[in-house]
TrEMBL record:
This is Pseudouridine synthase. Belongs to the pseudouridine synthase RsuA family. It holds the Pfam family PseudoU_synth_2. Residues 2-60 form the RNA-binding S4 domain. One of its GO terms (biological process) is enzyme-directed rRNA pseudouridine synthesis. Its EC number is 5.4.99.-. CDD domains: PseudoU_synth_RsuA (cd02553), S4 (cd00165). It is an enzyme of class 5 (isomerase).
Length: 241
């Protein structure tokens, strides 16, 4: 059970004070009866709440997929840079979502945003072995020796040995390479540092899949959409891909 004013404020009907005014005006109905006080408790699963005659669609959690553009930081607040939250409309910001893990400022691609702390924890903990797939462009030729190094795990500049990763070569020339990288951890600059340890540099990085869900290519960089129920089941590992 939750307070009516909290439920309506969370849905963007105004501040608690504004919701109180709305209730006093007689604009809110609970199960067909006009609400008199904004502090009454409601059952958001059972009660039918109407505002100005329209039934509200209550939900606690929001799950968004964004195609993150370069130049924007994966944080909820930053003193200097634009954040991924700044790219959201107020109707999504009201749910106070946060990014699930981080992509570097210059990395583009799939970033999930949610206010579901439990799912966030499961998705970012290496314990749960959540696959993250990246498309990367590398400044040098990449070969089978590099694939083997990824398979074994790579020692980074700080001495940390990564979990095994998968490297697939799409194209390798003297001038550079295109690869897919699959890892299950999310250490700071991990993909870039794995290649650095092999003497190579990542010149472009895009995440294309996370936890079994794939970046919707209809999303331009900077655009986002809610994930579907099927995608949510995949993320929660309640549905196989
Ligand atoms: N690895 C990186 O180096 N950067 C990212 O943004 C994500 C993974």
């Amino acid at each position: 059970m939750e307070r009516l004013d909290k439920v309506l404020a969370n849905l963007g009907y105004g501040t608690r004070k504004e919701v109180k005014v709305l209730v006093k005006k007689g604009a809110v109905e609970i199960n067909g009866v006009q609400a008199k006080n904004s502090d009454v408790k409601v059952d958001t699963n059972e009660d039918i709440i109407k505002v100005n005659g329209e039934t509200i669609n209550y939900r606690k959690f929001i799950y968004l997929m964004m195609n993150k553009p370069a130049g924007v930081v994966s944080a909820t607040f930053d003193n200097y840079d634009e954040t991924v939250i700044d790219l959201l409309d107020p109707e999504e910001q009201i749910f106070e979502p946060f990014p699930v893990g981080r992509l570097d400022k210059d990395t583009v691609g799939l970033l999930l945003l949610t206010n579901d702390g439990e799912l966030n924890h499961k998705l970012i903990s290496p314990k749960y072995h959540v696959d993250k797939v990246y498309y990367a462009e590398i400044d040098k030729p990449v070969d089978d020796k590099d694939v083997k190094c990824f398979e074994k795990g790579i020692v980074l500049d700080d001495g940390y040995k990564t979990m095994p990763g998968k490297l697939e070569i799409l194209k390798a020339t003297e001038h550079g390479s295109e690869v897919y990288v699959t890892i299950q951890e999310g250490k700071f600059h991990q993909v870039k540092r794995m290649f650095e340890s092999l003497g190579k540099k990542v010149v472009f990085l895009k995440r294309i899949s996370f936890g079994g869900i794939i970046l919707d290519e209809d999303l331009e960089e900077g655009q986002y959409r809610e994930i579907s129920e099927d995608e949510l089941l995949v993320l929660k590992k309640e549905k196989n891909v």
